């Protein structure tokens, strides 16, 4: 039988195959193997390309995911920890309000520092401060000491505008939808299962000691993550510093933080102002609903906490998966239309929740909310990145965090009054007004 061998170099991968050109089945199998291997390689490379992020964006994404494994074991049970330490309901409310107030102020200062000192130094210094807060939470043994780690943790939120600015600075404008989707999916995934570990710690060691060990875990994972962040993160916004700035007092930065944020908003484009109004109205709706969802499910619908946790976990898994799937939908529709679609889904989700009576209906509500979150998160971030100039990014992003937080406080108080005195379902129905107004604002953008 006449046989000859030739050398084939596949272009898609660096492998060589000697293939016998005869009519035997072995030759066909060899060639088939090479072709299939090339297809698998191409698919693998496509997956790697899909999850690709620029250096700084990947460093922030990966370290956040590592840190979330620890923090998500403890953070969901913070008020329960306060109670186990001896704080009563009134004290817990005051502590939460205090923490929110300090966080708002710190975020305002952080936005200014991100644009005047640079992004990296702010992220690194206050990431370490956040790790310190977790460790202090682990150490304290009295309700009178809660104020100490709570203050440290609230001040450490100062780095949030700088963190978000680095993400927007690093990701190519044409690739932001995919980039923000990948970031949120990877960063969210640990929070799907980590709270369960916190619950297991409480079952094993009791509520107080269980959460203490959860905060210790948060500290350990935080040290690992922030050490990597400190070593690998690079600056994305170089600032020409004024030599006289060395002699300026902290009050100078505080005063300028307050004025510069509002000045930047006043000088910004119309789209930035409308997006700010949108998130502010959505903040009112969130304040009316989020504090009372679990109470309504457990006390009014009489669904067990375990069953409700299943809904929350499935919604979390759905969000992670959808964040990766909806990329192509968002790229097709555009960031603006996608954000509008998500804003319409929010009130629809609340209607579904208000009408829910069974576990199946709650699951439908959870999946609808996951769809809205998955579409809105990368779409809104892309709109912000496109509309906000790089030199004002820190200050304006701080306002995007501050305004929703400010309006959510009084709306949460109003929701409590409505829940008790009017009807438990009334806050969810009334939230349709601000959510609907937010959607109308986007429609005119």
In brief:
The chain is mainly alpha-helical and 445 residues long. It contains 20 helices and two strands. It has a two-stranded antiparallel ribbon with strand order 1-2.
Most strands sheet: 2 strands, antiparallel
CATH class of the largest domain: Mainly Alpha
Number of helices: 20
Oligomer: single chain
Helix-strand sequence: EEHHHHHHHHHHHHHHHHHHHH
Mean pLDDT figure: 83
Radius of gyration: 25 Å
Report the end-to-end length measured between terminal Cα atoms: 75 Å
Category by helix and strand content: mainly alpha
What fold name goes in the CATH topology slot of the largest domain? Growth Hormone, Chain: A
Note down, in words, how this protein is organized.
There is one protein chain. With 445 residues, this protein is mainly alpha-helical. The protein has three domains: 5-48, no CATH class; 55-237, Up-down Bundle (Growth Hormone, Chain: A); 268-445, Growth Hormone, Chain: A, CATH 1.20.1250.20. Helix content is 78%, strand content 2%. It is built from 20 helices and two strands. The chain has helices at 25-50, 55-74, 78-84, 89-116, 119-139, 147-156, 160-170, 176-188, 190-205, 207-232, 250-267, 270-289, 293-300, 305-325, 327-333, 335-355, 359-387, 393-421, 426-430, 432-443; strands at 5-9, 16-20. A two-stranded antiparallel ribbon has the order 1-2. A hairpin with a 6-residue loop joins strand 1 (5-9) and strand 2 (16-20). The longest helix is centred in the last third of the chain and has 29 residues, at 359-387. It is globular and about 60 Å long. Mean pLDDT is 83; it is low at 1-33.
